[in-house]
Each structure stands twice: as C-alpha cells, then as structure tokens.
Amino acid sequence: MATQARAATVAGSVEEQAGELRYMARQPILDLHGNVHGYELLFWNGRDKTTRGKGELATRTMLDNTVVFGLEELARGLPAFVNCTAESLTEGWVQVLPPHMTVLELASSAEPTPSLLEACRKLKASGFRLALADFTGQPESGPLAELADYIKVDLLKVDAMERGNLLRQLAGSKASLVAQNVETQEQYGQACKEGFDLFQGYYFCRSEPLQSHKIPGNRLVHLEILEDLQNDPVDLQRMSQLVMCDASLTYRLLRLVNSPVCAMRQEVTSIHSALMLVGDAAFRRIAMLAIDTDLSADQPEEILRMAFERARFCELAAPLCGLTPSEQYLIGMVSLFPAMLRLLMEDLVRMLPLREAARDALLGKEIPEGVLLHWMVCYEHGNWAECDAIVRSSGLSHEQVMSCHALAVEWAEAALRTNA
Fold this sequence. Notes:
Largest sheet: 8 strands, mixed, barrel
Shape: elongated
Helix content: 40-55%
Distance between the termini: 18 Å
Strand order of the largest sheet: 1-2-3-4-5-6-7-8
CATH class of the largest domain: Mainly Alpha
Structural class: alpha/beta
Number of strands: 8
Number of domains: 2
Radius of gyration: 23 Å
CATH architecture of the largest domain: Orthogonal Bundle
C-alpha cells in the first residue's frame, strides 16, 4: 500500500523536518508459489532521486512515518523490509518498530564494524530479522552475510555467470535468497532455475503471450459481458443470461453484491434480482470486479490487488480531471488483463468494444484518458518524480491524488476480503 506521510522525523531538528515524506509505498516480495512473502517499504521526499532511504535523515524520516502509519497497515501483517543505515542500527533507532514484523535491510556495502555486528546480533536476539541488499560476494561483507536472514541479489547488476558463483558461495547459508529487480517472466524463470527462494519485482503483471493461445470459453463470455457493459442502459435480461453461463462468475458476483463492497442491506438470490436492486452503475463496477477476480484465478493475488487499486483510483480521480469515472474504472481494471490472459495488449484491445481513446490509453499513448493509469503505474514502480510531473501537468494537487489512492487501497482490501 502507498500513503502520504507528513510527520516529524525521529529525533529530528526543525531543519530536518523539511525532509518529510511525499510518498510511501510498498513493493511486493513473492515466493515460488506466487504468494506475497513480505513488502519492502519505499519512500520519496520530493527531492532525492533514490526510492530507498539513504542517509540518516532519510532513515529517521522513514522510521517515524512507519511508526505513524503502522507496519500492520502498511505491510498487511506480512514482514516489512525497512531500509536502514548502520547508524540507525547501532544507535537503536529501529527499536521503535515491532521486531516480529520487521526485516532490517542493510546495504552490503556497509562496513562490518564490531559495533555494527554486535548491534545486529542484539537486534536479531530481540526478534528482528536482517536482510543484506545488493549482495555481490565481496569478502568484506562476509560477516554481515553470516548474520543475514535474507540475502538480496540485484539481477540488473549481477549477470547470470556471477550469480552462479554467488549462489555456490552461499550454498551453506541458511538465509533466504531474494532476486531483486525481476521484471520479466523470463528473468523470473531464470532466477527460479538458479535457486532463488524469493522474487522482488513486477514480473507477475507482465504479459507473456502464448503461441496459438486460445481463450477458454468461459473467458469469451467475460469479453461478451464487457461488450454489453458498454451499452447504456444495460440490457438486464441478456446480461443475466450471460453471467449465468459461468458458474464461477455467478458465484463471485452474488458474493460481491452481498458484501460491504456493494453495501446492500437486502440479500439477493439471482443475478436478475441483483441487477434490479443494485442498479446500472453499481452493477457495471461489480461485474468488472467479478470478471477480474475470475480472470486472475491462476495468478498471484497481488495482481488482483493491483487491478482493484488501479480501477478504483482511476474512478475516484476521474472527476478531478474532467474524465468519465465508469470508463476510467474500466481502463484501470483492463490494464492488467493481458498478464491474466497471457495476451498482448494490442491483441486484447481489438477484442473489446472500447472507445478509441480508451484503447489508446491502454496502449500507453499520451492522451488525457491515460493520465491516471500512467500515474498509478509510475507510483507502483516508485517513479515518483514522474508522478509529481503528471500531477502538475494535469492541474491536480498532491493531496488530491494521495487521498484518492488511500481510498482505493482501502476499497481494494475490502474487495479482496470478500473474495477470500
């Protein structure tokens, strides 16, 4: 989850408070089964180019805002990887965090002084875990590697041959091996073969088209439903028949209608009665939610969370940009369909009866209809300087977009609980 933070820094002076956070976000770390193992917390203060805290002020600001917003909320109760400096460990600043939920992430370039090693041992004894980032196998990082619970290797900085040497070097280590910057399915496959345990990056939401890939019949029904949702008003009789062609979709739709996401007080027993009760606009959203859930059934849950967040954010922020909320919701949701269906976006948009502007937005063209999706993608990847540029060029405010984002995250979590 990402949230704005505007609190004073830990033990910070008035001047240091100028280092307040503009953005705080989380990047997922997945296991071999596609489950989220934990999140690395990232931040940006509006000036520094880095997305990971470097320097004492950055670390103190990060720690304070982590306390303010709570690791339970930020990392959904999963391990939170928090970037730290050597001083933040030796001076005990990190002790403001809950040990059982926190992984203290230290750069492998940190000098393993006796005081740092002793601090690491004490922190581990109190329940913290230790991660060593950007590991390259340098002998001087050996003492820290021996203490680490996680060792991270950056795929962009260490080639396959060097990684092979590193993994042989770490053969006796009890640490979990994390592949950083895994951005494609090909990289993920290679990292799996090499023996990595965990994977950090957005490989899971990149489409990997299959040759002669044929969409299953029930998913063709989904595309038909999407086509009919473009009609105004929706033909309730035809829509009921389409939804009932897919038992899984029918079940999900009925659950969603009876959930807090829809906030209905009256139970429904059929698709047609659900349509009549919720009304046209609400049904469009609920149908999209159910379709997206069904399409992502074989994917990591994180891709569904991202789709929900994108859709709801685009819908909420649309009026601020003079855009149509329902279409923006659709654009946000459909943006991850290619990864779910293993199709190219170019092929997918030809199957959908979208307006040309919506197609162009999904294809990444620089048009107003694509601005909010572009902001969201940049935010997910920690490209926050570009996020600010989008906000300025669109006449929005930082507070407005962050408020919409926070509401979208809350809504997505509610939707996921409903589908659990």
